[in-house]
Amino acid sequence: MVIQPECEENLSKTLPPEEYATETAYIKNDWVYNKLVQEKKDFDVIIACDTIISFNNEIIGKPLNLTNAKETLEKLNGKTHQVITGVALRYSTGRVEKFYVKSNVTFNDNKDSIIEDYIVTGEPMGHAGSYAIQKKGAILVKSIEGCYNNIVGLPLSVIYEKIRINI
């Protein structure tokens, strides 16, 4: 079952990026847990994640609008940034496990026209860093280092291994 948490993601962006992502995931997890308890629903494990971009230790989330998306893509253009997914797992035993997965993404030195053509697709909206590597945003990327699924937003292999060990 998938439950979309209805909580604010308003932690201070002065936190270290890894802590910001991990604590935001925990807040989402806690919201879902409280909803399940209130509705008296059982669970084996609650998985909550939050994916952010870190560039020069600045936290970059989802764009506010297309102008903001363009500014972000221009900032990342030709450079390497980190994709950090914070994960919070809560087991039915009450045990909570928090961790993060980090991957590096290097952008091509894209011409302005490439960035502008990508922006008009509308795809940047709703994606941390203003791009979706699993979609058209792949054209912006030169290379990755680390877990591809983390960059997409859900580091499945790491989550699976943690759950396998604990259940």
Automatic annotation (TrEMBL):
GO function terms (MF aspect): nucleoside triphosphate diphosphatase activity
Domain of life: Eukaryota
Cofactor(s) named in the record: a divalent metal cation
InterPro entries (UniProt xref): ITPase-like_fam, Maf-like
Alphabetical list of Pfam families matching this protein: Maf
Gene3D superfamilies: 3.90.950.10
SUPFAM superfamilies in UniProt: ITPase-like
Coiled-coil residue windows: none
Keywords carried by this UniProt record: Hydrolase
Alphabetical list of NCBIfam families matching this protein: maf (TIGR00172)
Protein's recorded name: Nucleoside triphosphate pyrophosphatase
